[in-house]
């Protein structure tokens, strides 16, 4: 039997599998999807456009991650960082460079950084003032999280991976010198190309079974039942399935009623010709305006021209799905196309419409989340289950790709020797 069962072949599952390969320990990785990378996968559609499933920017705080990127052999573009806010969603005239708080003509006078903070809304109001709160921070965050800010904790803002530490390579991604802060590295071929190459170069051959779902787990016998009719016995399980799913395996259902995940439609439009001037040099845009369906748009062809191909360009928009008033995929695609037309994108030049609904977009750092996760971790580890990764760990502030990769490695080391898992619980230390 494999000593380790790894559930999920995203960044965390791959990190765990690479570590197990280094140690020569028997393991099996199963993933219900049909490709490697999880939330960091890339999809190429029938028209030849490549889509990431979000606006991924590659950071590194860890030598282990740098070594994996270098060993993958994947080339990196160093993309000029050029993010903007589309403040009113009414045309190019309301585009402002980020960070938006640096675009004020005069400083706000209603700042109270030492005032009491009960939730994320208080944090933004106290630190940025009422005008910025009302015009950007409140509507943008509500669109992104799909919840009112008074339901969201503020503590993650000081723990967010990279928020208080260098967001540059430790040794230089792919062995080169650290990139300047004005640029960021992006894998040629999309983020999914990186994780496919890490698998090919650093993981045990034939250790991954795609299109294989874990149906349930006997936590006492430590046996997982798979949807292909087989079973897998294990000593330890590194699970990147949603922690609510893992807790169901051990019969604890309360977290499924209290933990919250955003839901979104990833909508991509591929165009022939050149992008309009308003989008030609952008990397990403944030939009708080209620009239625009998306909260973030990523110019993927500016990350890598091959994502679109010669004489074409593509943009991916993240459209929130609110429980109270859900938007359909067709409505989302139509709304995205209309909004981009206001920025000069000619709908007659659209040659590809891509969409993918993500039932798990972001793990929301709701009030009381950490107390629940501590108890969940204790209960799961009593059965040899380490629930880690973006939704396995449910900690947004620990879920960048480099953090996810090292979470998997550290989970293996903790299972074997009790080594600390600082990347999961203490991202602010890196």
From TrEMBL:
<dbReference type="InterPro" id="IPR036188">
    <property type="entry name" value="FAD/NAD-bd_sf"/>
</dbReference>
<dbReference type="Pfam" id="PF13450">
    <property type="entry name" value="NAD_binding_8"/>
</dbReference>
<protein>
    <recommendedName>
        <fullName>Amine oxidase domain-containing protein</fullName>
    </recommendedName>
</protein>
